[in-house]
Amino acid sequence: MIAGRIQEGTMKFASNSNEVAIVREQMRQSVPEFLLESLLYRELLDTEAARLGKAAGDTAELLRQFYVDTATFGLDRWERFCGIPVQPTKPLDQRRAVIKSKLRGIGTVTADVIRSVAESYSNGEVSVQEFASQYKIVITFIGKMGIPPNLEDLQASLRALIPAHLSIEYEYTYLSWANLDKLLLSWNDFDDLKLTWAQTEVFDYRLPIVRSSIGLTMAEQ
């Protein structure tokens, strides 16, 4: 197969930046050397290599549409398949979260299913508590601080998933003074972080703080 090969059941393609070069080299190695002495033949080979390289790239891009985590233009089809509105103006990660939550929500509704759906939106750990006598479910976001950016999508998805006689409450995690004290930072240290009050509220005290010659900085999440 030109510009691709089957290895352990997986089709692997070269990256877009060098697909044409790989195809050209494969084609050059498959013909007698004396043909490459012809300028006309080399130009013909280069032209065909460019076309085949593009075809390989298009094929690889098409394959990515078969998986929610890598799909781009194919998300429209995933949304229609899941019976949810097509929203091309929304960020790709939020559209993927809605699709994955719909797929995870198929079947019997249990606490594990609810947790799986909620975590697909928040990209972090979620706690699900059931209060049967109160006909209530409490969902607490503990893996990420603050309110998830696509909370409305999450609420709509869970409301469609969870039986109507059960109410749903959401709890969010914010930075407490007790957790701030655990960092053992002076006020000057904290000033080095250059956080606004809104950023301070959702500051994840569990992440390491990097000390350097320019002061304190937060590690990447």
UniProtKB/TrEMBL annotation:
InterPro entries cross-referenced by the UniProt entry: Phage_Mu_Gp48
Taxonomically, the superkingdom here is Bacteria
**By what name is this protein known?**
DUF2313 domain-containing protein
Q: What is the phylogenetic placement of the source species in the record?
A: Bacteria, Bacillati, Bacillota, Bacilli, Bacillales
